[in-house]
UniProtKB/TrEMBL annotation:
The keyword Oxidoreductase applies. This is Sulfite oxidase. One of its GO terms (biological process) is sulfur compound metabolic process. It comes from Dendronalium phyllosphericum CENA369. PROSITE patterns: TAT. Residues 336-419 form the Moybdenum cofactor oxidoreductase dimerisation domain. InterPro entries: Ig_E-set, MoCF_OxRdtse_dimer, Mopterin_OxRdtase_euk, OxRdtase_Mopterin-bd_dom, OxRdtase_Mopterin-bd_sf, TAT_signal. Residues 118-294 form the Oxidoreductase molybdopterin-binding domain. One of its GO terms (molecular function) is heme binding. It comes from the Bacteria. SUPFAM superfamilies: E set domains, Oxidoreductase molybdopterin-binding domain. Keywords: Metal-binding, Molybdenum, Oxidoreductase. The lineage of its organism: Bacteria, Bacillati, Cyanobacteriota, Cyanophyceae, Nostocales. The keyword Ubl conjugation does not apply. Its cofactor is Mo-molybdopterin.
């Protein structure tokens, strides 16, 4: 499967389900055609799971007592004006980005830590690559990785739950999890070794299908409640070997900070934030699809508009969607006068080619001026002139990327509040100058 085809989630999901059917029919000792005939006699797609052996449970619920901390789960100081939803989250304040450059400084970058960053000893840390998809399992030290040929990629990392609060407001229904507005995103210059180089050192097989990346942080207990498991995510081999998929050790020209994955993390530009695992220790390459509980049950869209595609609990999440944000306080209060409204728009599938702004709650629209740089998988800065009189305003922005993806006015509900990509109304009060 080419990386280009991965832009289409339907193609990606269909390919994985086809592989799953083939894998399970082979294990059952019957032909794929006969297996499909059997499925046709059953009710619903969940019947596939009924013929398979139970998958290893790798629960992602944070219930482990082995990694609890007494204080904050974030090590860096809280930047002025930023929002901390919990001890492990730090949301970027869009107002502070007004007048700033293209990149978000390390100190100001958003954070979502499940636990306090684990300690790092460069003398003992190792990254292991193993699995049926490689011929020579191997380990790399930190010094070996930073001595390899490296490249730098400017890319966004965005939590899949960015914008969750807008689901609550649109549907008047509360959701569990961090109530992000649009500040769970940041763009940085990431420096590291292409993951493809490390995989070639392990003699990547042509039959390799999936890549699991595992971090050092304990995310949960297994199904027996006795063994802590580590956070992980899975990407197909086409994404893992893409030119811009990196094992990163530097951020904006500095060693990777603890809150952002020290000593190393992976970057898969365009994919949801959870794919970009921090504090990595192990990479497993498999000749068959890898299914973890996180991938099957939590990184999916679940709701009436997203029927389950077995073995997934809902529609799997891969690439991020299109979003826009104003560089304003929420809500904003301004004095009447002349303003240069600024904002940023981004897409997980490419670069932004058009941004439209409404100053009257969506009644009329005008094109915003796009400012360079405008990089794919990152964002573009834009601005419009505004001379408001006193009153209440609802500002809106909608962007379109080079593949034709545009922000819709409404977004179907999903039970976890992921991938909110609808047009957002930003409240602004203008007072007498």
């Amino acid at each position: 499967m080419s990386d280009e085809n991965l832009f289409d989630q339907e193609d990606y999901i269909k390919a994985r389900v086809d592989e799953y059917i083939w894998q399970k029919s082979t294990q059952a000792g019957i032909s794929r055609q006969r297996f499909l005939q059997i499925l046709a006699t059953m009710v619903g797609g969940t019947a596939i799971g009924g013929l398979a052996k139970p998958l290893p449970a790798r629960s992602q619920t944070n219930t482990s007592n082995a990694f609890k901390t007494k204080g904050n789960k974030i090590l860096k100081p809280l930047p002025p004006g930023y929002i901390s939803h919990s001890k492990g989250t730090l949301e970027m304040n869009w107002q502070t980005m007004y007048g700033r450059g293209y990149l978000v400084p390390n100190d100001w970058f958003y954070v979502h830590n499940r636990n306090t960053p684990p300690p790092f000893d460069p003398a003992t840390w190792r990254l292991r690559i193993e699995g049926t998809g490689v011929s020579i399992p191997c380990e790399f030290t930190y010094d070996e990785i930073i001595a390899m040929p490296s490249i730098s990629v400017t890319s966004a990392i965005e939590c899949a739950a960015n914008g969750r609060r807008f689901f609550e407001e649109a549907y008047n229904t509360p959701l569990s999890g961090t109530r992000w507005r649009l500040g769970a995103i940041g763009v940085a210059e990431w420096t590291g070794v292409p993951l493809s180089i490390l995989l070639e050192r392990a003699r990547l097989k042509s039959t390799a299908r999936d890549v699991l990346v595992e971090g050092a942080d304990l995310a949960s207990l297994d199904e027996k409640g006795t063994k802590p498991s580590k956070f992980n995510s899975v990407v197909p081999i086409a994404k893992a070997t893409a030119d811009n998929s990196l094992v990163v050790y530097a951020m904006n020209g500095e060693p990777l900070p603890p809150d952002h994955g020290q000593p190393c993390r992976v970057i898969f530009p365009g994919w949801g934030g959870n794919a970009n695992v921090k504090w990595i220790e192990r990479i497993e390459v498999s000749e068959t699809p890898i299914y973890t509980q996180w991938v099957l049950e939590q990184m999916v869209l679940i709701g009436p508009d997203y029927p389950a595609i077995s073995p997934y609990k809902g529609k799997p999440i891969t690439y991020q969607n299109v979003k826009s944000a104003f560089e304003l306080a929420w809500p904003a209060t301004l004095s009447a006068g002349n303003y240069l409204l600024r904002g940023r728009s981004w897409s997980g599938k490419g670069k932004i080619v058009r941004v439209e702004v409404s100053l009257d709650g969506g009644k009329t629209w005008q094109f915003a001026r796009l400012r360079e740089p405008n990089l794919p998988f990152a964002w573009v800065r834009w601005d419009v002139d505004w001379n408001p009189v006193p009153g209440e305003y609802s500002l809106q922005a909608r962007a379109t990327d080079n593949l034709g993806n545009t922000q819709p006015s409404t977004v179907p509900w999903n039970d976890v509040g992921l991938l909110y990509g609808g047009v957002v109304s930003h409240p602004v009060t203008v007072r007498e100058g």
